[in-house]
Amino acid sequence: MSTVDASGLERERHLLERSGTAERVAAILRQYITDGVFAPGERLSEPVISSALGVSRNTLRESFQLLAHERLAVHELNRGVFVRELTTEDIEDLYVVRRATECGALRRAAELSTVDLSAAEAALRDGRAAAQTSDWPAVGTASIHFHQALADLAGSERISATMRQVLAETRLFFVLNENTREFYEPFLECHEQILRDLRRGRFDVAEAALDRYLRDAEALLIDLSE
């Protein structure tokens, strides 16, 4: 198993200026997992990461415990802490949670007087731009941001927090694909359809499209894992 490249973490130090808490460190590491910087099976080196972030080993260990609680990391005796590798059963369970959370968020958004689609719009633009340069891992990152934006439409911090954790776990499965156009391009088309219906206030139609999208994505990832 390889060890993660933590060189980019030094740029995140400013996020810890006010609070060097384990929760904030865990949030940074969670984002690196979500964005695919840290991949499943990579070792989260204590000395490398603590040095890069300028935090104590104790603080880092507390953050590792939080990530383990979220099922994003696993401690192996006498070997260290690793980004978790998930199973087919994990895929099935994650997509149960995603359908309940994301589709529920759209139903809640339909009850609100106004919704802000700017974050979803930006994620779609990022995905389109990355596709133009055939940067398919970046398309995957944009897809994660798009789905977080959908959950955020509910206006609930608990829903948003749940989605952040679930999407970080979901990203662990993206390593199973070959980062090809065939894998990622359909995501963009589905995102465009969902966003088009949301712009028109057709939340029920958007929810139905989202449900189909998530079921298709689940089936695809299960095929890849097998």
Give the strand line-up of the largest sheet. 1-2
The residue ranges in which pLDDT falls below 50 over 5 or more consecutive positions are none
Terminus-to-terminus distance: 21 Å
Strand content: under 5%
State the share of residues found in helices, binned by percent.
Answer: 55-70%
Over all CA atoms, what is the radius of gyration?
18 Å
Number of helices: 9
Structural class by sheet pairing and helices: mainly alpha
Which H/E pattern describes the elements?
HHHEEHHHHHH
Form type:
globular
Number of beta-strand segments: 2
Describe the main β-sheet briefly: 2 strands, antiparallel
Mean of all residue-level pLDDT scores: 89
Organism: Amycolatopsis heterodermiae
Pfam families: FCD (PF07729), GntR (PF00392)
Protein name: GntR family transcriptional regulator
Keywords: DNA-binding, Transcription, Transcription regulation
Describe this structure in words.
The protein is mainly α. Helix content is 66%, strand content 4%. It is built from 9 helices and 2 strands. It has helices spanning 22-34, 46-53, 57-69, 88-110, 118-132, 136-152, 157-174, 181-199, 203-225, and strands at residues 73-76, 80-83. It has a two-stranded antiparallel sheet with strand order 1-2. Strand 1 (73-76) and strand 2 (80-83) form a beta hairpin. Helix 4 (88-110) packs across helix 6 (136-152), helix 5 runs antiparallel to helix 8 and helix 6 (136-152) runs parallel beside helix 8. The longest helix has 23 residues, at 88-110. It is globular and about 55 Å long. The mean pLDDT is 89.
